Amino acid sequence: MTKRVKITPSVAEQTLIRLMRVGDRLWRESDERFNQWGLTDNHYNVLRILNGISEPISQAEIGRKMLSSRANVTKLVDVLEQRKFVKRLSCGDRRVNLVELTEDGAKFIEETLSAVVGAANEQMTPLTRDEQKTLFALLGKLLGE
Amino acid sequence: MTKRVKITPSVAEQTLIRLMRVGDRLWRESDERFNQWGLTDNHYNVLRILNGISEPISQAEIGRKMLSSRANVTKLVDVLEQRKFVKRLSCGDRRVNLVELTEDGAKFIEETLSAVVGAANEQMTPLTRDEQKTLFALLGKLLGE
DNA sequence: GGGCAATTGTTTCTTGGTTGACAATCTGGC
DNA sequence: GCCAGATTGTCAACCAAGAAACAATTGCCC
Fold first, then answer.
1. Is A16 in contact with B124 (CB distance < 8 Å)?
2. What residue ranges in chain B does DSSP mark as E strands?
3. Which of A95, A94, A93, A116 is nearest to A47 (CA)?
4. Which of B20, B79, B1 is nearest to A106 (CA)?
């Protein structure tokens, strides 16, 4: 048997691993959920961002909000535009495309959101409301917010 | 302006989003860290799993432990074997490859682990030890453990 | 005004990873 | 014994995302 490093993980490390596992699981589940509509979670993310703001925003801005590369936003918006959920608008600055939610896109969000929110609530049921709040606060600290 | 669904996210949903964001960030940082040794975090994950057990295990087992497909485990073990960190053994069941940590692999873990653990501890510094513990417990509940 | 740096969107290439098919092997019921 | 069904590792095809290069455009500083 080969020699082994004895590993006695610190609380910090154990917590970190758990965080990664939970995050991983949530991403997988979310991806799975959106596949049902032929989208990835990132596609849906774009729609939600657009739904949440009052003015059309540039692709670069979208990328910044969702921590995704500009290159990828191009592709995401491509398929959303093809689905007629989203429209590219030209504006003063000829470099940028402003992206706007269409009627269809808004309707899609409206129809699907309750299912999405329901699933989210379901995933959190193991925790009481108070526990959810403390969890929320702790994660906020971790994110430096 | 197109009609919008009014969104007032529940605590559950806000927490869930934060969980996903934290998880995402940790995965990115961890990936970045391991690139420095020409590995992905999943490669390292395999090594840690092998380091943590006393008996060689099958590839399928590894895949189950780390929530990865068998196909992917094949590729991960391929590069680890090429790096001489790991060895494939045949066993009674001629379908399975048992995978074993080599001396080199054990040494690699030994040399790198402190850096990895250090980084993990650093990432958790925004939280006190007690907070880390409650976080750990809450995540455990969420995972159903 | 003229030029240089910065920004934007796109394209191309690469990379991890999953899925599905496959052959080889094992197991359990008869 | 033997055959149907499950498991295992691998391979090919595909997919989402990132990185780098690029052209078009803008803004700033002199």
1. yes
2. 57-58, 86-90, 97-101
3. A116
4. B1
pLDDT (0 to 100) of residue B10: 87
Output the CA torsion B107→B113→B115→B120 (10° steps): 170
Residue B95: per-residue pLDDT: 96
Cα A134 → chain centroid: 22
Nearest residue to nucleotide D12, by CA–C1' distance, is B71
Which residue in B131, B139, B141, B145 has the most chain A C-beta atoms within 10 A of its own C-beta, making it the best mutation to test that interface?
A: B139
Q: A71 beta carbon < 7 A from strand D?
A: yes
Q: Which residue has the higher pLDDT, B1 or B14?
A: B14
Give pLDDT, residue A8. 77
Distance between the alpha carbon (CA) of B66 and the C1' atom of C21, Å: 24
Residues B34 and A76: their CA atoms lie apart, in Å, by: 29
Measured over the CA atoms of residue A144, residue A20, residue A6 and residue B113, the dihedral's sign is: negative
Judged by DSSP in three states, B121 sits in helix
Mapped to the 3 state alphabet, what secondary structure does A53-118 carry?
CCCCEEHHHHHHHCCCCHHHHHHHHHHHHHCCCEEEEECCCCCCEEEEECHHHHHHHHHHHHHHHH
Q: What is the pTM of this model?
A: 0.88
CA gap B124, A15 in Å, rounded: 8
Query: Does B105 contact A138 at a Cβ distance shorter than 8 Å?
Result: no
Q: Residue type at A8? A: T
Distance B70 CA to C22 C1' (A): 14
The pLDDT value given to residue A2: 58
